[in-house]
Amino acid sequence: TDRSATTTRPSGEVADMKISDEVMINMTGVNKWFGEFHVLKDINLTVNRGERIVICGPSGSGKSTLIRCINRLEEHQSGSIVIDGTELTDDLKRIDEIRRDVGMVFQHFNLFPHLTILENCTLAPIWVRKTPKKEAEEIAMTYLTRVKIPEQANKYPGQLSGGQQQRVAIARALCMNPSVMLFDEPTSALDPEMIKEVLDVMIDLAQSGMTMLCVTHEMGFARQVANRVIFMDAGMIVEQNAPEPFFTNPQHERTKLFLSQIL
Ligand code: ADP
Ligand code: MG
């Protein structure tokens, strides 16, 4: 059974997106330390297929660490993380499966500078998914068209603007046909005039039904596409709610303070 998100949003654009009852990500009692430093404290988080979640919170609160644990770029020390039915353990084969299924977009794009845009997009499909080269190129062109830069396919990352590079990074992740996309402050390294072109791609992706976890302080984006906003502080999920009540009626002092500083 599906249920629709019912909150009315200013744009109304993504308001009738379907959220499945199927669990995509389940984190239970997750703790992580960097040495003595307790960076994630008893994180419990369930994300259903089709959910679009924005994670916000002060610098150093553990947002990046949280989403990096989801594709095992960081290892948690206790609790369980289950992605699409597969538990993250030390089993390398499973970690590979999960990395194929979980797309990630970073603040600093992380494109391969010595490869063309097209090669950046076909590398993993060809070598990891064993997709034939011609097919991988066709798929890549489809996604480069979707992020509105098919004409850049044969250029190198250094020849593109930051906004264009970030759109390539999103297209590259989509070429692996992920079932969930993680974004870690995808617009925070961009010049202001390039932020919108990246957010527009992310909005389009949300409208297509992609399950998304986005660390971002773009609160307009959160209001427009998120069905849930999560506030983290000091390694904990302090508060979470649908965007309207989250922004208009935050419950915790720390959330109020944070919102007063960024809004
Ligand atoms: P956020 O993304 O919310 O800014 P992070 O998850 O990047 O926070 O970091 C949370 C805390 O963990 C910070 O205090 C940071 O300095 C620390 N930290 C992050 N990565 C490491 C690491 N590899 N080793 C030690 N400490 C780290
Ligand atoms: Mg971070």
UniProtKB/TrEMBL annotation:
Q: Name one GO molecular function term.
A: ATP binding
Task: Answer whether the UniProt record assigns the keyword Metal-binding to this protein.
Answer: no
UniProt xrefs under CDD domains: ABC_HisP_GlnQ
List, alphabetically, the Pfam families matched. ABC_tran (PF00005)
Q: Which domain of life is it from?
A: Bacteria
What positions does the domain ABC transporter occupy?
A: 25-259
Spell out the family assignment given in the record's similarity comment. Belongs to the ABC transporter superfamily.
Q: What is this protein called?
A: General L-amino acid transport system ATP-binding protein
Origin species, per record, is Amorphus orientalis
Q: Give the organism's phylogenetic lineage.
A: Bacteria, Pseudomonadati, Pseudomonadota, Alphaproteobacteria, Hyphomicrobiales
